[in-house]
Specification:
Blueprint: H1 16-24, H2 28-36, H3 41-62, H4 67-87, H5 90-110, H6 118-141, H7 150-173, E1 177-179, E2 183-187, H8 188-206, H9 214-242, H10 257-261, H11 264-278
Antiparallel strand pairs: 1-2
Helix pairs in contact: 3-4, 3-6, 4-5, 4-6, 5-6, 6-11, 7-8, 7-9, 7-11, 8-9, 9-11
């Protein structure tokens, strides 16, 4: 007689791809509404929220203790972005940088961590908010280029179009490692495919944007696509040097905000610079 108790079948969770889709699809209509509809306040609140979370994630990776430093990273990232978006003067930005600098030095002097960690701690307390707040502020700024939301869509296409194409082209044709110490799976063939996708998407979107012709699209497609891949590698460096797989866990299947915004944090400033200095917005 078999006395073994039959166990109920294990419930299978969503696969990685299905979980990513299930996480992001419900957010798409809300994000599109904030991108294209008036007023612009909801979009800016959304961007500030993402900046705060990303600033927290950077501190959690690079200055993991104490908890207060994570809050400092979140708050100063938002403050730096606020100075850029709402004030925009050299004096305001300088004042915020000065505050962040003094605060970083004070925080470091007050900590009881080993002294040999002080320089790294100061560096991240100073540089983290400037990296996060300065780069993601551009996502709010480009929304104001006409037509409303069009340049945000362009920045997103440069970031995620390049990333997606690089992934699939790399899987199919990739042979030559791009940066094996940082991200072993990335290849030169994938990077080339990502750049081609960025250019192609930029050309398509250019037909819907004023002051942005096909030649502009090709130039920004190359610039933005390369910048996005650089941003992806940069966050890979942060995670690998911190011994973590994801920057956070707020987005199931995706990781943290930085995991999703790594490329966008570089394509958005490139898009803003092109729109401001070349297109004249």
């Amino acid at each position: 007689m078999n006395d073994a108790i039959e166990q109920p079948p294990m419930k299978k969770g969503l696969s990685g791809t299905a979980l990513r889709v299930a996480t992001i699809v419900p957010l798409v209509p809300l994000i599109l509404w904030m991108m294209f509809a008036e007023p612009r306040l909801p979009w800016r609140v959304f961007i500030f929220t993402c900046i705060a979370i990303a600033g927290y994630e950077v501190m959690a990776m690079k200055v993991p203790t104490p908890y207060g430093l994570r809050i400092w990273g979140a708050g100063t990232s938002v403050l730096f972005a606020y100075a850029i978006i709402f004030i925009g003067t050299t004096t305001a930005v300088y004042g915020v940088v000065l505050l962040i600098t003094v605060g970083a030095m004070a925080w470091s002097l007050l900590q009881e961590d080993p002294l040999h960690d002080a320089s790294s701690r100061i560096g991240w307390l100073l540089g983290g908010p400037i990296y996060v707040g300065g780069s993601l502020a551009a996502v709010a700024l480009v929304r104001d280029f006409p037509p409303t939301g069009g340049w945000v869509l362009l920045a997103m296409a440069l970031a995620w179009g390049s990333d997606t194409s690089a992934y699939f082209v790399g899987r199919k044709f990739g042979k030559t490692k791009l940066a094996p110490r940082i991200s072993p799976k990335k290849t030169l063939e994938g990077a080339a495919g990502g750049l081609a996708a960025s250019v192609g998407l930029a050309v398509i979107i250019s037909f819907f944007l004023p002051k942005f012709g096909v030649l502009d699209a090709i130039a920004l497609g190359i610039l933005g696509g390369a910048a996005g891949q650089g941003g992806d590698l940069w966050v890979s460096v942060l995670k690998r040097s911190s011994g973590v797989k994801d920057s956070g866990g707020i987005l199931p299947g995706h990781g943290g905000i930085l995991d999703r915004a790594d490329a966008l944090a570089f394509t958005a400033p490139a898009t803003w610079a092109y729109g401001h200095f070349i297109a004249g917005f």
